[in-house]
Amino acid sequence: MNQEALILFNLAEALGIGLLIGAEREQRMSQTDVKSSAGIRTFAITALLGAVAQLTGGVALLIAAVLGVVLLAGLAYWRGRAENVGLTTEIALVMTVLLGGLSVTQPLVAAGVGVVVAVLLASRAFLHSFVRSVMTEQELRDGLMLAAATLVVLPILPNQTFGPYAVLNPYLMWSVVIMVMVIAAAGHVAVRVYGAQYGLALTGLASGFVSSTATVRDMAGRARIAVTERDGAVAGASLSSVSTVVTMALVLAATNSATLHAMAAPLLAAGLAAGLFSMPWALAALRAPRVIVEAAPPDQDSTPVVPQRAISLKEALAFSVALAAIMLASTAVQQEFGKTAMIAAAALAGLVNTQSAAISVALMVGSGQIAPQDAVLPILAAISTNTGIRVALAVTLGGNGFAGRVVPGLLLGLAAAWAAVLLPLPIVPLLPG
Question: Which of 21, 111, 199, 339 is deepest in the core (most CB within 10 A)?
């Protein structure tokens, strides 16, 4: 592409950005009584102004153009302050001139940002309704906490090992904690958005990404209190086992891909068994009347299916401490007493949290302390003890009607995982890597 053609391309992109943002603002004005001095033509010309300024005078002239647009936008807002209720259009106008200049130096970035700006402007009603009516104050704080953990804390942590046996890596451990928090937040959002529409079955599936153990406990309590909801509670508890398998695959993929490859057959077998067992109950629950699922208020006495918090800092820190302790204990046991003792340590860790046990073993694989195949039995031991906890909760809290339907599925999934190891099938060679 010659120089003139490249210039024409940059100008065309700037014009497209201006027209895109301006079209949204023009449409917005046509739907309300709010008047604005900037319509589609103003936005298009402003974007071209930024591009021409960058082409002819570089950064200095672009800065002068931006200052001029800021001055005019401020004057327009001051003149119409009695009618305007916000600065959105004026800010968008300043952004447009900057994007026009950026389209000359970074056209792909400018195009992407332009689309994002247009989408944000067009999503006004949805965003306002979501923040004011759907999102709770606690969920907002949890979102800010997750952002701080990712953007503030993670970059300052050292990415190197230290401590006894040189197995503790703050950056890697905190990255795993963030991933677990993201999975928990995604499960919470899925429950809030889809639970009210599809009932307890999908609620259990989504809640299982947060904690399958907690989901079985909550569903057991609901089945005991409301017999009419027992089928839905059974479906939710059973489907949470599928979520556990998916979560396990995600954490292993993020921690050590070789461990995921070694665990592919048992995880796939367990997931298929749990999914097939859950299907009849899920279909029955989906045909049942829909239930309303909302964030639980802090003073609610009954056990909610949806946790009132999307993310818990206390639980995240506890997970980090537990992960560090399990990593140290597993490494020490493995080096001092051999692999058999490491399996026992992982089984004990599974009583608390399956993911932390699996992550600690996967990190040992990543550091070269054990081979990927040697990680299978410890992880399965952790899954086994955790399944035992869920079986005990189903029996003690849900009663015979609930336990008789849920426990066989839990045991079937566990048996399928062990069978895939003891009676290996040609599954792993079909997987990439």
Answer: 21
